[in-house]
Amino acid sequence: MQAAGNTFPNDWSPPPVEFLNLRVPQANAGDLAPRPRGLRRLAHQYPEVSEQEPQDLDRLGGLASLKEPFWTMAGTSPEAGTPELASGSSGCYVNSLDYLLREKRKLVERFSVPLQVIPAVHPGEPVFLPRRHPVPCLLDSSQLKPRSPLEKLFLSSSPARQLTFLRQGLLSSIYLPEGDHPMPLLRWLFQLLTWPPETSSRAFGLLWDLSLDGLFRQSGGDTSLWCPSLQEISATFHSLGAHSPALQPLGPTQHAGSEASLSRSEQQDTLQEMALDSSLNYICKFLTLCALAQPGAYTDQDLLDLIGLLCRAGLDTRLRLLPRTDLQQLLLQLLESIREWPEQLRQLCWALSRASGHHHNLLALVQLFLDVSPRSRQLRGQLSLLIMARLLNQQERLPLWQEKTQLSSLCQLLGLMRPSSLRRYLGPETVLPGQEQQPEASAQLDHKVCYLCHSLLTLAGVVVSCQDITPDRWGELQLLCMQLDRHINTHIRESPQAMYWTTLKDLAAQTHIRWQELLAHRQPQAQYFSLWEDV
């Protein structure tokens, strides 16, 4: 029944609003769109309502269109086809884990900032190539006469069995009681220092014991110790893989296969690095003993060549993160063994400045020489100044070899270390007019400029630290501080997207503080203040 005066029927229900559905049914041309049940009842009982029905449907269609901005803002448009409709459900979305991960990776790629920093470790040089098997070492026993049955058995044995004598410690009982140690045996033990640790450790122990035993048995202060020649030392480095074209690098990138095979390859590379480091330490320790016991065993030219060979070995890529105490100790002793030091210093600096083409490697080479002796200190300062001049193409224009003018030369080099000047020096030679550099290329160039400036500024600090700041040179150091602020500090623009600029600015600040401390502990000459008063 219908009560009198009621405007609407009792069984009336409001039309469903389906604006959250994916698609609104579109009516074909000339056809009526399907009407909701409530609207059909209204049209039957109240014909005047049917005239407003198209407008209501248009309004409903407008509400349905409100979903497009929502999907657009969310970045998950239905056209992408990633969110799927659940089977058997009416318009329910299901977000999969794969889709969420893809969405997060896209977001990270969009807002990520490439992290470029100044490396704390130099790149190194590929000096020693990996090797699979050690180079065979044969004992030349043709001139040796056995003095015991055990020694006769050793000399007549095969090379493999001779190594067994060494590993079992039998050679100590054969040769240590004897005062005369045959030179072929010492040479054979020195060659075995390039073998794996289980052999090289035994060879070094016996070589060291025999050498010290020979020194202790001598009397009258006349020492005689077998020292390997430069050619034998070079052959030993060649056996370790230095500059050997027959050996091919076996880096991890050349291996293909399962994760297990890659893990075995990395483990093998680690073992080879440890073996290389052990062999070099044994060689350096024995050569240090030779340089101490026999200062005149090598000529000055041999010493210069040996220092260059050792410095080159110290830049090996696989040895960058390992301590080099034995190598640094040997370099100090070799510097003290040079007879004509002032004349050989320039030749040594020129040779070492060409050891690598990378500025960070050259900085690491300077740091191989410890600042603990006058000669090492002088070499560090002179070599650092020469490297800076070569990197800035000023080696022929500055008086680099005059000790009294080194700070003034450094002042001129600081003016060329301005980042804008280095950018023109490192940038492309030809740039078309009206054409700007791409952002990625510009960022890479900025990183190269900052990296080079960081190495140059570190070398500048080495030059100053190796100088004797006397009162008459106080003004030069003060000028250096002013040049540092003028050409470096004021031209560094920090950015959160380029942290290498912040690293360079920190180094510049630390260098400035260190130089100011040197000024504070030195008393300037009175003529310095009178000069500024006249100005």
Notes on the protein architecture:
The chain is an all-alpha fold and 535 residues long. The chain has three domains: 10-26 and 33-78, no CATH class; 125-355, no CATH class; 360-425 and 440-535, no CATH class. The protein contains 22 helices and two strands. A hairpin with a 7-residue loop joins strand 1 and strand 2 (93-94). The longest helix has 35 residues, at 259-293.
Compact description:
With 535 residues, the protein is mostly helical. 56% of the residues lie in helices and 1% in strands. Residues 27-34, 48-54, 56-82, 84-91, 244-259 and 528-535 have low confidence and may be disordered.
Protein topology:
Elements: H1 37-45, H2 53-64, H3 67-74, E1 84-85, E2 93-94, H4 97-111, H5 149-155, H6 159-167, H7 170-175, H8 183-191, H9 197-217, H10 230-239, H11 259-293, H12 300-314, H13 325-337, H14 341-352, H15 359-366, H16 374-391, H17 406-416, H18 419-426, H19 439-465, H20 474-487, H21 499-520, H22 526-534
Antiparallel strand pairs: 1-2
Helix pairs in contact: 9-11, 11-13, 12-13, 12-14, 14-16, 15-16, 16-17, 16-19, 17-19, 17-20, 18-19, 19-21, 20-21
